[in-house]
Design a protein that fits this description.
The protein is an alpha+beta fold. Helix content is about 25%, strand content about 35%.
Length: about 180
């Protein structure tokens, strides 16, 4: 295995002429994985699980396009919020949340996201699993303990959001692209 640095992500490439377990540059799989993990750990990656899973909403809120991939957050539960079309997540052992991982967000995008998410959420470091990148560190907006009473404790549905909630959400939050 060799590790190649692109401007947006580290990529593993195989080389048929390699000595088993070693790349042409002398980096073995475990070293490459360690380099990759460190690279992923220090980036502004964001795990999203609600309205921001929609690339168009994310782009307007963050003020930029970002590369994305599917990801899963383990030991968290995604709940609807009373009288809202968007969800929140809270820690819950054994539960998991499927969402979208946005990679390498610039600091200005994170600032805009903090404003958009508001008082209800706190940005936390979490570990997510992506089929494309494995386990990596990311930020996620988690409902603050003092606001858990706003959760309806029913599983929030992304399909339902796309069918009816997204239009309502966009009407209610029309100004989010001007953050």
């Amino acid at each position: 295995m060799a590790v190649c640095q692109r401007s947006d992500v580290l990529v593993f490439e195989s080389n048929e002429k390699q000595v088993p377990g070693r790349g042409n540059n002398g980096i073995n799989f475990f070293q490459a994985h360690s380099i990759f993990s460190r690279h992923m750990e220090f980036m502004n990656h964001l795990f999203t699980y609600g309205s921001l899973m929609c690339a168009d909403i994310m782009q307007r809120v963050a003020g930029c396009r970002a590369q994305s991939t599917e990801a899963v957050l383990r030991d968290f539960f995604r709940s609807g919020i009373h009288r809202e079309d968007y969800p929140g997540i809270v820690p819950r052992p054994g539960a998991s949340v499927t969402g979208v991982l946005y990679l390498d967000l610039p600091a200005e995008a994170v600032r805009r996201l903090d404003v958009f998410e508001g008082e209800l959420y706190e940005r936390r470091q979490v570990e997510v699993f992506s089929p494309d990148y494995g386990v990596c560190s990311a930020m996620a907006y988690v409902v603050k303990d003092c606001y858990r009473d706003r959760l309806n404790n029913k599983e929030w549905s992304y399909a339902q959001f796309l069918a009816t909630g997204k239009a309502n959400f966009e009407k209610a939050y029309l100004g989010f692209d001007r953050i």
